[in-house]
């Protein structure tokens, strides 16, 4: 089926069910950044493969919102389909909620799969729609219904992340969380965010490509620490978890569990990281409170054992990068090396490390002009062969038991133009400017971002992505709350936080 | 009566009425930054004269929260009273809401004058208190009851601000606001913020010291533009306002007006700039919506006529500063000049300008060590005499019909130490670093603040205040939404916005 045929099929179903507009998001029920292919509804319906998109489909229109990293890619991938790209956060474009409200008739019906939208986003959408008395149906998974060759969810086993890596036992972590709950008078705290769960329980899995997380929910009360997970996934850990007083529950059991807690409980979770379907099933007898994910800041501030491990893993990983660059420079032009080969070579070199698990994200190996696409990835259908001239951008990293790495290198393979030299130098100046920053405790990354942007802006240039992000510990390569970007988000830097430093010029 | 006697009196009343804790804020019903003395409950009850404070009084404790600008001053002014100072936004101190919740017994009673707290603050407080089922009484003005020599509210007349200064007529401004209301499906928009009202209607007054605003509220609907103001204040403007279809209503008539609009209206106002008492009187038949003050951004983006006027007024004001510095350097050491004289001299010099109205804020003339207190102001009881040595800090400005100025100068009066030279140079470097900034449209001030802080932070120094603020046009010397400070607030810079540039070293 072509993309347009799929859209036609969806429109047929919408017509049957009296739905005026249907929304598709990029999220799984855990608001995972790079969700498993099982939840890649956006790719199925539009063909777009970027990590951020929201789709709106009506009788007459098919729109896809994405951000600056993907404008080039979306333009290319949506060509020849019904879809029109919309720029997210651009002053000239309308956000999808406003657009959805405007395009849907008074008293109309909109629908989406409520498991794939956060409580926060859903509330914003419902607020907009209420202005025209548009109703939102959240239990209709139209795409799930028409997706025939849909990828299965993973059945991979969960394993214990050893204390020699984690540095703090799960009882201690749970007890810190309970301290916050007590202070905030919260009876039950629901965690949907997969890396928070993996961190809290010192468990790792392999359900999400290049991540070490596993599909699950957690509820913490003063009496119980409940892990909601498919029983066959967790079979290797049952004994150890029982020893730490963790109780095991079925994956889809969160609403029932919460509703059985008794009446008038204060239930808290992070509205931005929990799906709306679960929220909508919580009995109205409870009070629901939005809080910042308690575990996120705990997880972000690495302990001494983690920091020691991170230093070690980065020294080893750097050696692998040197080995890779040596191989590349010695062989480029002598044998055929394509962008696709780079990724494999890196896995081969890193894979010899006894603690190596997988890449930490899909390698970006982008030769010459391809590097202008942020988060470009070569495919079997479209890739370049590397020649002994110009630049090769390699952004890659590894998941190791003792840490997660994320390294970007722009490698000079031969003659480069004076413009390329200028751009390379500017990027280096940005990187050094940030690396040398002296700053007050408690500052947020948006301030430091200025230091990285300054050399660029002074030359009337900019890059349309963040400068740095938190990095997990044998966990997600993107981790909050800290961040270095132009986005104005309060996430004070605290001791133990780790961030990347990756300005760039994209042209 | 001493401060402690006043507190004892208040505690007596609290006991009679069964109130466990009483809160006093620095705000008038319009959330004015530097509110009229009539509303200076904080000064009456504590003796503290800074522009930011929150007071909490219980049977056993008297606490005053303020920010870094006022730590030195509060420490001095609260000495010998029951009051203990609490640092606002300090990692080690508890915020007043949490403290209030913790100190009040389960099912206890807290009270405050609801007209002196914003809807936003009140909601946060109520949320905290609800965790212990503490009730909040908002219609009890205990301090108003015991304040015998309370300053009267002003009766000053309102006057028309000529179009040759304002550059845009009130009909046009109102029509722009109505455009937003239509877009957002808002039936009635309430403005409490005095400078927004003055800007919207091209009116000026003199109710707040050094401001050009007047006590009033506004409600805008598609059909009406209603100004709620004491009739004797507005008598000079009745005809012109009638000509622009502005209807006049009594100052305290907002709730009745809103409740008479019919049922099921969407009423919007800025929760942070509207008082909770009015909010609490709005009929539950209406839907209330929190929005960012619509007029603030319109007001912040100066039009061409305003910008032309602002350039002119700053050239004239700079000439007055030169005249002042010449006078000072010629006379220091020859005649007695005190900090108090500086303020008078500046009024004398600026006062000769045909468009001059008043200072735009209380002049800060701080000699040597006094300059270490941010927002220091000399008093009849305590001031320094200026000698021909060291530094004099002068931070002053004027309200003119064609603009508002804000100028800080550190004047060298004789020999200065090498440390003073270093600090002066650092401040200059900060100022120049910010002044030379090249930045993208839409950036928020927190990013640019980094450029001003960098020279300081690189020397392990900091200043505990913002770097820059918006400046009104013949209006408040502090004006939002734009701002340059470490505070992480999204307020994108737009064309026509004007900001100050005032880093400093305080020691």
What does this 3D model show about the protein?
- The structure is a homodimer of 507-residue chains.
- Helix content of chain A is 35%, strand content 17%.
- Chain A has 507 residues and is an alpha/beta fold.
- Chain A has a six-stranded mixed β-sheet with strand order 4-3-2-1-5-6, sandwiched between helices. In chain A, strands 12-11-10-8-13-14 form a six-stranded mixed β-sheet. A three-stranded antiparallel β-sheet of chain A has the order 15-18-19.
- In chain A, helix 16 (418-435) packs antiparallel against helix 17 (445-458).
- The first copy, chain A, starts with a helix and ends in a 23-residue tail after the last strand.
- The mean pLDDT of chain A is 94.
- The A-B interface holds A 91, 131-132, 184-185, 437-440, 442-444, 446-451, 453-454, 457-458, 460, 462, 486, 488-490 and B 91, 131-132, 184-185, 437-440, 442-444, 446-451, 453-454, 457-458, 460, 462, 486, 488-490.
Summarize the structure.
Chain A has 507 residues and is of the alpha/beta class. Helix content of chain A is 35%, strand content 17%. In chain A, helix 14 (304-331) packs across helix 15 (339-350) and helix 16 (418-435) packs antiparallel against helix 17.
Global Rg of chain A = 23 Å
Q: Structural class of the helices, strands and pairings of chain A? A: alpha/beta
Largest interface, with counts of residues having CB < 8 Å to the other chain, equals: A-B, 28 and 28 residues
* Percentage beta strand of chain A: 15-25%
* Widest sheet: strand ordering of chain A: 4-3-2-1-5-6
Shape of chain A: globular
Oligomer: homodimer
The mean pLDDT of chain A is: 94
What can be said about the biggest beta sheet of chain A?
6 strands, mixed
Report the span from N to C terminus of chain A. Answer: 35 Å
Helix content of chain A: 25-40%
- Low-confidence stretches of chain A at least 5 residues in length (pLDDT < 50)? none
């Amino acid at each position: 089926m072509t993309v347009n045929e799929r859209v036609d099929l969806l429109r047929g179903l919408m017509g049957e069910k009296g739905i005026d507009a249907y929304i598709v998001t990029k999220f799984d029920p855990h608001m995972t950044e790079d969700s498993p292919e099982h939840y890649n509804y956006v790719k199925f319906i539009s063909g777009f493969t970027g990590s951020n998109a929201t789709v709106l489909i009506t009788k007459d229109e098919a729109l896809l919102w994405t951000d600056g990293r993907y404008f080039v890619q979306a333009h290319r991938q949506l060509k020849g389909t019904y879809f029109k790209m919309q720029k997210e956060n651009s002053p000239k474009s309308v956000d999808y909620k406003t657009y959805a409200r405007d395009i849907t008739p008074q008293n109309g019906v909109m629908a989406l799969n409520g498991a794939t939208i956060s409580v926060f986003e859903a509330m914003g959408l419902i607020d907009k729609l209420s202005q025209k008395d548009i109703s939102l149906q959240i239990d209709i998974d139209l795409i799930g219904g028409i997706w025939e060759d849909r990828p299965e969810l993973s059945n991979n086993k969960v394993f214990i992340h050893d204390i020699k890596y984690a540095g703090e036992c799960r009882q201690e972590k749970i007890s810190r969380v309970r301290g916050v709950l007590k202070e905030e008078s919260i009876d039950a705290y629901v965690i949907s965010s997969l890396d928070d769960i993996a961190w809290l329980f010192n468990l790792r899995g392999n359900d999400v490509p290049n991540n070490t997380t596993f599909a699950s929910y957690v509820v913490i009360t003063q009496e119980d620490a409940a892990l909601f997970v498919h029983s066959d996934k967790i079979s290797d850990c049952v004994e150890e978890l029982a020893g730490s007083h963790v109780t095991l529950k079925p994956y889809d059991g969160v609403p029932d569990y919460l509703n059985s807690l008794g009446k008038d409980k204060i239930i808290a979770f992070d509205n931005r990281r929990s799906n709306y379907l679960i929220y909508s099933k919580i009995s109205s007898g409870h009070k629901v409170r939005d809080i910042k994910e308690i575990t996120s800041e705990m997880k972000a501030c690495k302990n001494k054992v983690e920091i020691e491990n991170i230093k070690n893993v980065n020294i080893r990983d750097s050696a692998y990068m040197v080995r890779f660059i040596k191989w590349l420079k010695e062989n480029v032009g002598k044998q055929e090396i394509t962008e696709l080969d780079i990724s494999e070579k890196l896995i081969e070199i890193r894979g010899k490390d006894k603690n190596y698990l997988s890449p930490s994200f899909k390698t970006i190996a982008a030769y010459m002009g391809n590097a202008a696409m942020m988060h470009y990835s070569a495919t079997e259908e479209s890739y370049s062969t590397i020649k002994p001239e110009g630049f090769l951008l390699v952004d890659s990293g590894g998941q190791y038991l003792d840490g997660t790495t994320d390294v970007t290198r722009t490698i000079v393979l031969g003659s480069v133009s004076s413009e390329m030299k200028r751009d390379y130098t500017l990027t280096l100046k940005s990187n050094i400017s940030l690396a040398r920053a002296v700053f007050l405790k408690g500052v947020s990354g948006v301030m430091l971002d200025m230091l990285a942007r300054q050399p660029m802006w002074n030359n009337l240039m900019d890059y349309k992505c963040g400068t740095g992000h938190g990095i997990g510990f044998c966990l997600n390569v993107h981790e909050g709350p800290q961040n270095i970007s132009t986005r104005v988000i309060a996430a004070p830097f605290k001791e133990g936080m780790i961030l990347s430093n990756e300005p760039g010029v994209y042209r």
